[in-house]
Request: fold
Amino acid sequence: MKITSTLLFVPLYSALSTTVYALSLSEAPIQQVTLYPNSAKIERSIPVKAGEHLVTLDGLPANFDISQLQYQTSNIDVNAVSHQDSALNKPAGQESHQLKNEIKLLETQISAQRAIIQAAELQNKFLTNLTTGSGTKVRNQAYDAFIAIDAATQQKKELEQRHRELQQDLNAIGDHQFNQRSLKFYVQAAQKGEIKISYIVPYARWQPIYKAELNSAQKQITLTRMAMLSQKTGEDWNNVKLVLSTAQPQGQVRQVTPEPWSVNYYEPTPIIRPAPVPMAAYAMTKERKSIEMDNTVEVEAAAPQFPEFEANELNYSAEFRTDTKTSLASSQQQIYLPLKTEQFPVALSVWVIPRQSPQATINAELSTLDNNWPSGMVKLYRDGDYIGQRAWNNSPDEKLNMNFGVDEQIQVKVVDLVDKKNMMGKTQAETLQKQQYVIQNLHNYPVQVSLFDAVPQSRQSQLSTQSSYSIKPSTTTWQGQPNINQWIIALAPQQKFQLQLEHLFKYPSKGHTSGF
Reply:
């Protein structure tokens, strides 16, 4: 077997043999799809008969970069490759084909109702100008014409509404707008062989979705990995091998090189105050600005067999492969496939951050997960109840903390004792703040509470801070962040915990402060 891998594109020229072996997409089906977060790699096999000189593959959606087309050959040689795009016979998925056929049928029916209305109106116009004949007969004919107009108008209105709905569905898919692309391979085939091609298409994606179910009694989380798949590439993927990859192919890669760092200093420039603007000129300027603002346009930043995936950690990405073939239509549907379900023990605690929120939250801490868990959205359930969802960025260097909602049985009170500003001479001032945190466990069982309080940090040398607490914190850092105090408190049922804190701020009296 001879296998080559080349990439060559030349214009079509007549010196080659005109014997054409034309294939449809069903005769060169997709073998495997590697789905990336924002694109997909399509791999398909093109059979070549012995003695063929020109093999044509018709019906491809012209939505991929032709320069990125790659191919490998077996038992044959490829001399040249060309392509041609056409706006005729635009390809689309099966769902779009059905919608387009329904839309065409509706357009025919709407035209028929429009013709009925126009014919009846023409008849009434004729009857209006009629001066001879039976008056009763004329009235009956006019009555029948008006009935026909009303019925056709109502039917036309319903058909047009249905037409708008189907057109909206078709536009939501959007895969009916791609031109058709034909690939031509000029080959030397002494014997039967094949051409395996691959290319990257847009309008396809997958993203990880997680479901975290907390069993508070067993202190355990059931974490289910899922994949949301969707594609609008203009071609249905039928019975293909599916690979999910966290890699992100880039069309263009920029070489990053070291650059020099230049700094400069500029002498202060004198402030020149502008002359007063005359009232008339001021009014014109104000009106012009108003017009410019009005003209500003805001731009807004738009019973199947489910495969079982196995995770593979690569050097720079992760892949999820399955031996089960699957199908995914080019449509607006989103398919959710389960990847894997695992159970993890967790450390449960209640977090209290009085400076940020008066509510206590239930926190579950997991050990560090491996890189096979790409970042994504996680849906949170606590003892069977849905709590909400959050974005999760998996970091192998940090433990995973998940908030499972508010604990209403942990009462948090913040009592302001002192908040007073004093002048210290003519140029200095100070502000003294005293507070008390009161935390009470209303559960009928003991609870571990983690109380957090950040130490104020000055951004200017003129502002100094000093803080003291009635109880020494358990630690003064959190996940590598300094100046975040944490108290780990074991509260028995109905037990209270009280903490007094004092912050003193000193600063020049002429300036202004923020943050306290």
Residues 436 and 500 are 4 Å apart (CA to CA). Residues 206-248+306-343+366-398 form one domain. DSSP finds three helices and 28 strands in the chain.
